[in-house]
Amino acid sequence: MDTTNNYNLLKEKAMELGARLFGVADISGVKNEFTIAAAVLEKLDRAVCLGAALSGPILDEIEDHPTKLYFHHYRAVNMMLDQIALRLSGLISGRGFSALPIPASQILDWVKQSAHLSHKKIGYLAGLGWIGRNNLLVNRQLGSRFRIVTILTDMPLKSDSPAADGCGDCRACIQACPRGAIKQRREDFDHTACFEKLKEFQNSGLVGQYICGVCVKACKGRY
Questions:
Q1: Strand runs labelled E in the chain
Q2: Which tens digit of pLDDT belongs to each residue from 76-134?
Q3: Among residues 186, 59, 176, 180, which one has the least CA distance to residue 135?
Q4: Distance between CA atoms of 85 and 107, rounded to whole angstroms?
Q5: Which of 3, 42, 156, 216 is most buried, taking the most CB atoms under 10 A from its CB?
Q6: Residues 21, 139: contact at Cβ < 8 Å?
């Protein structure tokens, strides 16, 4: 099978369905980090990563806390990505290969903010961006103003290379964070402080789940 033709086929369909970002990662060396049965993962060595942009005007309404409009938009974009992933998985399966779509937003451990796999790590490996100080995937054009979803597959696909870019001198997310969870080095990101703020937002009735959006708004891209 032609790995480039397969790649282009999936990318064209993803963009047609509404994706803004597309990349493929070689996950053969990181599958041990996933919380998915090893027997299922054994032959799935590629991950298709898709991104959809968030609305600028909706994000711009956010000040120091999430809004109900952002909460609805956040869920709607995740649902759209899940639908795109299902459609692409059907296309892959129809050509005789396996496809395992991983939900865009299904947290297994809120304290550690972990899921079945790290979408942002897959996005990094797929060349969509780098992990920023805000502990989010940062894309050169979109900043962190997007959501992503992943499909694991054994379809022969060429893989992209990790992005080598970085946040440089930008400190916008540090200044914006209402809890001071974001530090100079991304390795020092305070997960506990972040989660405590998410609980505060949820308990106050601002939103129905643990989301914020303040640092997402601050990271506009165009580096």
A1: 21-26, 46-53, 99-102, 130-131, 137-138, 146-153
A2: 999 999 999 999 999 999 999 999 999 997 665 656 666 678 999 999 999 999 999 99
A3: 186
A4: 18
A5: 216
A6: yes
